[in-house]
Amino acid sequence: MTLPSAGQEEEIAQAVCEIAVLLAQAIHQIDPEAAQRMNFAAGMSYNRFLGADRPLAADIMYRFGRALVDRDLFPLTEENEIS
Fold first, then answer.
1. pTM of the model
2. Using CA atoms, how far apart are residues 23 and 38, in angstroms rounded to an integer?
3. CB 38 within 8 A of CB 68
4. Structure confidence at residue 14 as a pLDDT band (50, 70, 90)
5. CA distances from 44 to 35, 40, 69, 73, 80 (A)
6. CB-CB neighbours of 23 under 10 Å
7. CA 35, CA 26: separation in Å to the nearest integer?
8. In the chain, where are the structural domains located?
9. SS3 of the chain: helix, strand, coil, percent, to 5
């Protein structure tokens, strides 16, 4: 098996993150507070990957976590707004 090049790794990382965001948006439509819980879990995974010296996996989790706090992607309703 051939390892992906740096350019291919970036493309794969972008696709994985995009898939995760699409799934998270579908969940968010059902449960608007889910994005907050997923962001916390993504932070835990990010730290675990950093500790295991897995920078690509950590980077993907970081991107996913950043997307979860983007209110254009995950709008808050009046009921679940953070004060």
1. 0.83
2. 11
3. yes
4. very high
5. 14, 6, 15, 21, 22
6. 11
7. 10
8. 12-74
9. 70, 0, 30
